[in-house]
Structure formats: structure tokens, C-alpha cells
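Please, does this match?
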Amino acid sequence: MTWDILNMVGTIAFALSGVIVAMEEDYDLMGVYILGFVTAFGGGAIRNLLIGVPVSALWEQGDLFTIAFIVMTVAFIIPSLWYKHWQKWGIFFDAIGLAAFAVQGAIFATDMGHPFSAAIAAAALTGTGGGMVRDVLAGRRPMFLRQEIYIAWAMLAGLIIGLGIVTSTLGYLVLVVMIVALRMASVYFGWRLPYRSLNKKEKKREA
């Protein structure tokens, strides 16, 4: 039941993020649905391709598809009802989706007997793959590559599970809470991974 709730929250959060991007780019209703579904379920599809799970397994989530469709339709028709609340709580819900999907991706990989490197990759792609495809379709640079620490927390979940440090349901739930807390802390404190910018150097040379 707990995993079902986390799945639902994560799916709704990712679907709404797809709706927001679509409306920001002035997409029509079909574009809203495509970006919403891709964001909510794209990570799972990429994970399945990576670790050898039939992609058709996604269609077993019929209830989640229905919920996502309803949420996206309401969000498109009456954005004023939810957009302000999303600005306040959206990052938190997105963090729940990231954590839950990353943990599930790692569990899938380890249950199939893959090495811990596959668990890390599965966790990262399940947690961020949908957002990556969404940003590419919207003509944007993928958000998780340039803002606060994001994909690294998903990879951490994969590392912990892949090494067998956490193996119980309670441990998985604790790990989800930890990933959510780390993600929110990185947003609040503005944590970023080290990066280099060559653009500034080029601008100085031109000046």
C-alpha cells in the first residue's frame, strides 16, 4: 500500500511537471498529454530497455495511466486551481517521485541479478529518464544536468541497494525518506556539483 501511494504521488507529480513545460512552450492539448505521459512513464520504459524487462510491462499500470490522464486533463482545463499550489509543493512531490522511482529501478535491477553498476544506472534512469525525454522534446537542456543536485541522489539510492546495504521493505522506505530529505536540502541550500563554464572565458576574450 505504501509503495502504491508513493507511485501515485510520483506519477502525478511528474505528469504535472510535463503539463507545466508543455503549457510554457504553448503546446496544444495533444502536446500536453504526450509530455505528461512521457515524463511520468518514460523513466520506467528506459529502465526496462536497459535491464531487459519487457517494455510491455508498463501497460500493467493501467490505473496509473488513468489517474495521470485525468490529472493532466483537469490541469489543462483549470490551471488556476493548482498552479499556485504546485509552485509551493511541486518540488517536494517531485522529490518523492524521484526517490520512489529510483529505489524501484534499483530493486528491479538487483532482483534480476544484475551487478551494482546496473542498479545505479537503473535508479538514475528510472528517476530522471522521463524528465530527460520531456526536456528534449520541449527543446530544453535537461534540468537534472544543470541545476541543483538531482540525478546524484538517484544514483546514491542505486548504489546503496546495488551493494546490498538495504534489502528490506522498511529499509527501502527509509531510503526513500533519506533521498527526499537530501533532494530538498540541496534545493533549500543551493547545493550544486562542481562545474566549469567555458562561456565566460570566451566572452572575456571577445571583450
The chain has a mean pLDDT of 85. The chain has one domain: 2-193.
